[in-house]
Amino acid sequence: MNPTVHIVDDDADFRDGLAWLLDSRGLPTRSWSGGDMFLQSLRPGNPMWECCVVLLDIRMEPLSGLATFEQLKAMGWPWPVLFLTGHGEMSMAVAAVKNGAWDFLEKPFQNNLLVDKVEAARQAALALQADSQERLLFQQSLAALSAREREVLDQLLQGHYNKNIAEHLGITPRTVEFHRANIFEKLRVNSAVELAHRMGRLA
Asked: How far apart are CA 45 and CA 119, in angstroms?
């Protein structure tokens, strides 16, 4: 997977130069002349929602970078957004980062610094994608548990031992051990501690 870098800037010369720089470093790009054009291209489930990074100019017309970012957030956009700012816009960029943006970079910038920040954002996007896939697989595994296995799971998560679980559910300790082994196998864990960690992180 090679995440695309979406360049959203209303300055055509700057946009083209930035695309050339990133393309020359092996980073695939797509360019957009404004936030409105980028937003119009987005539909949940289409390829535009695949793992990517957005470089967003903070001051654009007719839709500013900040307004574009707010709409992305409202749509549930999960991928890193890096703001490009001009002189005197630092406070807006800092506020955007506090509001959930990945980072910002002030123009004019050093090429290597920009590429490094973009690559860091791409790695964060890949990590987020991997986590989302792991979460989906874990939730599918949870859904595959039988009703009795789910009851045993709930008891395990409360810290109960096999004997207590057996008494609570009216089954034998050996049956609890059988269900416990099946739960561990289906959820790909090796201990109750690991199970609790994965439930807390992925369920």
From this structure: 25
**Encoding tokens for residue 63?**
């839709």
Q: Is the pTM of this model over 0.85?
A: no
Q: With contact defined as beta carbons under 8 Å apart, do 120 and 128 qualify? A: no
Residue whose structure tokens are 């859904």: 143
| CA dist., res. 164 & res. 153, Å (int) | 13
Answer CATH for 4-133 from 3.20.20.70, 1.10.287.380, 3.40.190.10, 3.40.50.2300: 3.40.50.2300
Q: Residues 14-44: pLDDT tens digits?
A: 999 999 999 999 999 999 999 999 998 887 6
Residue 5: the pLDDT is 97
